[in-house]
Amino acid sequence: MQHLLTQHLLAQAESIPTAAIFQALFSAVVSLSLWKLTAWQRRYEGLERRLNEATGRLIDERIRAVSTELENHTRATRASLDETRQRLAAGERAMVAMAEADHRFELTLTARLDGMKDYVREFAPARTDLERHEQSVERRLTRVETRLEELTG
Fold this sequence. Notes:
single chain, coiled coil, 97% helix, membrane, mainly alpha, transmembrane, transmembrane helix
């Protein structure tokens, strides 16, 4: 029995340091795991902040790019509108000049026609003048006929 008791005591003595070693190793592994987890957590917390900053910068860059593109389109549209306004103003000036030239031409033509009408009124024979002319021509022709008859006759 004594032998059994000695073996039992020896077994318990051997099991205590093994349990203590196991406990110490387990505590070390758990501590190391917790330390790494907290380091990862700190790193990921910083990563989350950096990701938020990077996302903010990307959004700002995209907004700036869209704003620049919109500004370029606005400038091009404004330039087209200014050019169209200039062309319309030039076209309007040309139309005014053509209208003035047309009016001057119309006045000149009217003045010339009035002069021609005055000339025709002054120098063209009237109906009575034509009738008198016909009568005088008939008389002359009659005289020519009678002389021809006298000469041939």
